[in-house]
Write a structure and sequence with these properties.
- The strands form four sheets. A two-stranded antiparallel ribbon has the order 1-2. The chain has a two-stranded antiparallel sheet with strand order 3-4.
- It has helices at residues 65-79, 81-89, 92-97, 102-124, 156-167, 173-181, 186-195, 201-230, 246-254, 260-265, 267-273, 279-295, 299-305; strands spanning 26-30, 45-49, 131-132, 135-136, 146-148, 151-153, 237-239, 242-244.
- The N and C termini lie far apart (82 Å).
- The protein is built from 13 helices and eight strands.
- It is mostly helical.
- It has two domains: 11-168, no CATH class; 237-311, no CATH class.
- The radius of gyration is 31 Å and the shape is elongated.
Length: 312
């Protein structure tokens, strides 16, 4: 018999473990030692739990049911890391089409995907809102954590720790890739980490430098696309033996350059911006923009020949 009040249990969740969704047969008393009630941010409580979750050891100074949930989930992830890794290494179709045979491998091929789904569902299970005698216990939002590939983890760091351990990845590469690419591109970062498991520090740095350069290039393209959209309708202008390109004119507008004098002052900035074109082409773009601004000093030419009149 529990020494504490049970949390409120909705009818459709009776006999359900609050931590993992499996059938409950026991309870998790919080705190397990009544002397530790002083550490709690809320009233002590008893939570329906399965036989596995009920016996997880948590810190004696745990402060809330939410902190307990995180520790139980971490214990579960450690125990079933190999099962969770199945979903990272295989698809259901690949397992069905595999040619595993024999007593051991044949059984794996038949049951592996089911093992993965059970582990995934238990780790991702969020339980129901916690209340005592109809009074909601304030705490973490129920949309807590970080979700990846159908599995909800306590945090991004917990997810990365699991992937590194389960897939035997380089301990530094994956977190560094996520720092550069962002959590939204974890799938891409993981693909790179899988291809580079056993690497030296030198190789890791080379990979990260390459990814940083790719990211910088992508950011540049997005920036250019943004301004291309902002200055949509700009036309190139042929003047004498030069050509003021669309990208050059967009650059001038973006930087509020509207005179030949100011363009000359920003010559270094122009060459820095278009250095990727190479020296000769970069010079020709600048030369064409110079001729364009020279021509724009003549109001008659502007009125009769400048297709971008409305932008200035």
């Amino acid at each position: 018999m529990s020494a504490y009040t049970y949390i409120d249990i909705p009818f459709n969740f009776r006999y359900t473990c609050w931590f993992c969704g499996e059938p409950s047969s026991r309870s998790f008393d919080l705190p397990k030692n009544p002397n530790n009630q002083r550490f709690l941010e809320h009233d002590p409580m008893s939570i329906p739990a399965c036989s596995e979750c009920a016996v997880v050891t948590v810190a004696s100074d745990v402060s809330s049911i939410w902190a307990v949930r995180d520790q139980v989930k971490r214990s579960m992830m450690d125990k079933y890391s190999d099962h969770l890794a199945i979903g990272q290494n295989w698809t259901e179709e690949e397992l069905k089409e595999s040619e595993f045979s024999g007593a051991l491998l044949g059984g794996f091929g038949e049951s592996a995907w089911a093992m993965y789904l059970i582990a995934k569902d238990r780790v991702s299970y969020q339980g129901w809102p916690v209340a005592l005698d109809s009074m909601l216990v304030e705490g973490d939002d129920e949309s807590y954590g970080f979700e990846f590939d159908g599995v909800r983890y306590m945090s991004l760091n917990t997810c990365l720790e699991h992937l590194i351990k389960a897939l035997r990845l380089d301990a530094e590469l994956l977190p560094s890739l996520v720092d550069i690419l962002g959590p939204d591109r974890l799938t891409y970062a993981l693909r790179i980490a899988k291809l580079n498991k056993a690497i030296t520090a030198y190789q890791r740095n080379k990979i990260l430098d390459e990814i940083r350069q790719q990211q910088d290039d992508q950011d540049d393209m997005l920036e250019q696309a943004k301004y291309a959209g902002q200055f949509h309708g700009i036309e190139e202008v042929a003047i004498g033996d030069g050509l003021a390109t669309i990208s050059s004119i967009q650059w001038a507008l973006k930087n509020d350059i509207k005179s030949l004098e100011y363009l000359c002052q920003q010559e270094d900035a122009f060459f820095d911006e278009f250095a990727h074109l190479g020296g000769p082409q970069c010079y020709m773009n600048y030369y064409g923009l110079q001729l364009y601004f020279e021509a724009r000093q003549n109001p008659v030419w502007v009125a009769e020949h400048d297709p971008n009149l409305s932008w200035w």
